[in-house]
Amino acid sequence: LTYTNMEPSTFEKMKMGAAMGGTVGLCIGFVFGSISLMRFGAGNKSPISMLSQYMIGSAASFGFFMSIGSVVRSENRFLISNMNLPIITNQRRIMDNKIKYIDE
């Protein structure tokens, strides 16, 4: 077997973010839904349907935002146009410090 060190694709990262966000959303929906049921009751609905509505809603929103966040975070940070920017900035700082020392 040959293993390669390939980075996951953007779509795979989006799926992982959605899965993690969905899991976190289910847990948070269970906690806050249970608290809401204990405080206010289920109303006209059954407690199970009320709790599942909380859990599905929070899982969908957390999953959506985590998938977007994982894609935004994993964008290519090493574009050719941005490669020299930190070096130029550091060189300017170095040059500014040298000029300050020379003037003093």
UniProtKB/TrEMBL annotation:
GO biological process: protein import into mitochondrial matrix; protein insertion into mitochondrial inner membrane
Membrane as UniProt keyword: yes
GO cellular component terms attached to this protein's record: TIM23 mitochondrial import inner membrane translocase complex
UniProt-listed InterPro entries: Romo1/Mgr2
Localization, UniProt: Membrane
Transmembrane parts of this sequence: 20-42, 54-72
Domain of life (superkingdom): Eukaryota
Pfam families xrefs: Romo1
Keywords from the named record: Membrane, Transmembrane, Transmembrane helix
Family: Belongs to the MGR2 family.
Name listed for the protein in its UniProt record: Reactive oxygen species modulator 1
